[in-house]
Design a protein that fits this description.
The chain contains 5 helices and 8 strands. A hairpin with a 3-residue loop joins strand 6 and strand 7. It is globular. The N terminus is likely disordered.
């Protein structure tokens, strides 16, 4: 999927070509705080074949499912790429490793979490599941997405990002952070 004209992409009403990536961090890599890690990761996107077309503000939320763990900083980016979905996922995993992501137990604290939320209107149920199977219920994903693409429509349930954000049941404390 190659979007030849970013201005065309920015004007899409239905976001049929949207490649959506969610970012999160709740652990520091000294001397970088989670927000610095997200900024550095976004800077690496371009070098990795992922051109950021639009990015949300940073959002904060308690860790889920254990709010006793460090709070998260989250964001969502719309990207343009010529990479196929599997290559995007491999690229995201390589970026996570560069930022010292350790894969352990599910939902463990992490220095960087990059999730491929959607790749255009593709629906897949194999090893790479698209759209992301739990993103629609998470305010820390749908809130930032609704901020930059409120009219994006979920390929399976037909609900917009704005509607999904309003009805999210996980991470309901998520809020935009001041600049």
């Amino acid at each position: 999927m190659n979007l030849s004209k970013p201005e065309e992409y920015l004007n899409l009403d239905n976001y049929d070509l949207a490649v959506i990536i969610a970012l999160g961090s709740n652990l520091s890599v000294l001397p970088s705080a989670p927000s610095d890690i997200l900024c550095a990761a976004l800077d690496q996107f371009q070098k990795s074949g992922l051109s950021v077309v639009r990015r949300s503000s940073f959002w904060g939320s308690a860790a889920w499912p254990d709010p006793a763990e460090p709070d998260y900083i989250n964001a969502v980016a719309l990207v343009e790429t010529t990479l196929e979905p599997e290559a995007v996922l491999e690229t995201l995993h390589a970026l996570e490793a560069r930022f010292e992501r350790v894969r352990g137990r599910p939902n463990a604290p992490r220095t960087l979490d990059l999730d491929l939320i959607a790749y255009g209107r593709q629906v897949r149920a194999q090893s790479l599941i698209l759209p992301h199977p739990r993103a629609a219920e998470r305010l820390f994903v749908m809130g930032p997405l609704a901020e930059i693409a409120p009219g994006w429509t979920h390929p399976l349930n037909g609900r917009t990002a704005a509607v999904l954000a309003a009805s999210a049941s996980v991470g309901c404390d998520a809020r935009p952070l001041p600049d």
